[in-house]
Amino acid sequence: xNRELMEALDILEKEKSISKDTLLGAIEQSLIQACKNxxxxxxxxxxxxxxxxxxxxxxxERTVVEYVDDPALEISLTDAQKINTNAEIDDVIQxxxxxxxxxxxxxxxxxxxxxxxxxxxxxxxxYDQYYGKEKEVVTGIVQRVMGKNVSVNLGKAxxxxxxxxxxxGEVFLPTERIKVYILEVKDTPKGPRILVSRTHPGLVKRLxxxxxxxxRDGTVEIKSIAREAGSRTKIAVWSNDPDVDPVGACxxxxxxxxxxxxxxxxxxxxxxxxxxxxxxxxxxNALSPAKVIAVMADxxxxxxxxxxxxxxxxxxxxxxxxxxxxxARLTGFKIDIKSETQARESGDFYDYEDEEDYYEEDEYGAxxxxxxxxxxxxxxADGFMTEEAFAEEASTEDAVSEIDSGAEENEAMEDFAEEDFAEEASxxxxxxxxxxxxxxENYEDEK
Length: 447
Known about the structure:
14 helices; single chain; 23% strand; alpha/beta
């Protein structure tokens, strides 16, 4: 049993994550290469290794001949009988080769073969490991800043954070821990080349999956993300469970969950809205916090006209059009935003309440006209008044005339009563004056 070789293989397997079978295969190839360097040929060389004990045996198959022309492929009968007494001409004898017989150059070449195989396997293991983490978020340590690029150590490999994938205004210091999104892993002769990002929308999605248990288990689903890195992000969420509020689940108690994501993104604002299959409702939610009066969406053309109050127009558009731009990316619609006044002037928006009142007034007016015409005409079946209708009309006219004559008599009686009352009042006044003058005249006569 070769204990030293077994211990070395175990250590390499733990540190480099390389299987023992792969290492044994590398040793086999190195021994064959050493034989080739020592003898010049290795076509007839074979190596057997016991995986349990790590004991190996190297031998060459040589043909027994009477006269040797090629020592690497042939062996004389005398030498063959020393190995096997029953050997005869044209037999194939296995001749054992001792590695101690190799020269310095052959030994060095064998060592290089083993090291090269270990490096290749190590690169392959790293590539497979990080290729499986593609589109995932990992934590790295800032190693150094190389011009405008940043080198990030991910543990067993270094990643490159290019200038285009950095958030504008972010400053990284050596030994600082940051979370990055693995964009792509490329296999190169020098090892895997890992490209990471801090601006990809997938970074926000993976951070929410890490913070929100409902998103991680699939109860709440993130349908769409629109992001302008370093400034604002809009997320549309949907709940597969009617008892779970998707927005509340993402926000958390007192904003704890979304606050953790915002801190990791260094203060980037995040808007969380409800996803809806109705494009109009989705667009209305996407334009929050602006209030919307009406949305006219065309699902086939992927266009939408949005009408907002005059005082909400600037809020709906956002600073430098950011709110409208993010809403368009989130919904996939080309959104045209107009104020209520602009929409009315262009004829794209009508006040439906006034229109309904107008129609109601027209209906009532038409009904009153029809009633009046019907009351005046009241035609019969042939279009003319019947005898009964004519008699009723005549009786109605007589009754009206009697009422008018009675009213005239009442007026005359009232006038007569007023004249009698005036004459009586004047007579009483005259009597009073006579009674006042009489005592004076009598007094003068008596005197």
